[in-house]
């Protein structure tokens, strides 16, 4: 059973008529994702990529039966797009937009409380279920169906790890990019929980980085749960200078908090295997599965 995305997922794209939406939605459709329409205010009634365009998310959902949305809206208006999807009770929203203003995301996080929506992102590369569909901007070609779930804060490293896992003969069940901005929707802990409960996931890879406390929260969860499925983690940014943003807006250590060493220490104490290098993640999870067997 895939996590988040399956053959019954019906997707609308908010901002589909822009360049990014047009390009990536076309790639999603080529991969097999069931895209059923787009939302661009003021362009309702038109057609784009041979799909109907609606003015509002609620209207698109009512007309198409969509149960997921992907957001390709520029940062200044991205939060408004997410809020509209939450108000329309869209079950799943993936926000690709990077560097949405922090105060805007605070309002989005508040709106998510008690809602029926699961938000992935912002600044997410999306969700990929090999052979089923993709809801995002990740590269494809090296992925294969298999038993390893991936939860990541890094888009480029996710592609590298997917290729490694395929190369060692394991393949992936579901890959989720939680997003690299400091405030986002679903976090690493809740994604891990879903993958550990997934019957088709045999092991999990976590890709973390400096900044924030998500990896420490995951470590606390694992320490309390003591899961039987092997978990491997890669934490990047070990040589990053303090108090300097490294790529993602959330990849920033402040006051000695959020550094790579602390995250590695917490995860190791919880029983997580730490990949010694980025190029050894696939081999580490292969060995972990072989050792369990």
UniProtKB/TrEMBL annotation:
It comes from the Bacteria. The active site is at 248 (tele-phosphohistidine intermediate). Residues 4-100 form the CoA-binding domain. It holds the Pfam family Ligase_CoA. Keywords: Ligase, Nucleotide-binding, Tricarboxylic acid cycle. One of its GO terms (cellular component) is succinate-CoA ligase complex (ADP-forming). GO terms for biological process: tricarboxylic acid cycle. InterPro entries: Cit_synth/succinyl-CoA_lig_AS (IPR017440), CoA-bd (IPR003781), CoA_lig_alpha (IPR005810), NAD(P)-bd_dom_sf (IPR036291), SUCC_ACL_C (IPR005811), Succinyl-CoA_synth-like (IPR016102). One of its GO terms (molecular function) is succinate-CoA ligase (GDP-forming) activity. Gene3D superfamilies: NAD(P)-binding Rossmann-like Domain, Succinyl-CoA synthetase domains. SMART domains: CoA_binding. Belongs to the succinate/malate CoA ligase alpha subunit family. This is Succinate--CoA ligase subunit alpha. It comes from Bosea caraganae. The lineage of its organism: Bacteria, Pseudomonadati, Pseudomonadota, Alphaproteobacteria, Hyphomicrobiales.
